[in-house]
Amino acid sequence: MATDYDTPRTTELEDSEQSLEALKARRADAAADLGDDVDPFETELGLPGADLSGEELTVRVLPRQADEFTCTSCYLVHHRSQLYDARRMVCRDCAA
């Protein structure tokens, strides 16, 4: 059966608008039922996708120290005690 994609679909649009209004009403009812049971940590967390353009990160970055090495497999800086292969400069985690 061929489908004509150019024809307007008013019935589906009307149904989705009605269901959207019903969903909004249900969401409002559910939000009203929450009351004081909101987790205090939840209010401190930022939402994903929030605008963080005005925020600045202040992280102190130290250069690699004399007793550290950079793994050639994972590119992380480790202490010399984590060195597994000095020739290949691979850490114990990557060698396993």
From TrEMBL:
Pfam families on file: DUF4193 (PF13834)
InterPro entries: DUF4193 (IPR025242)
Protein name: dUTPase
Species for this entry: Parafrankia colletiae
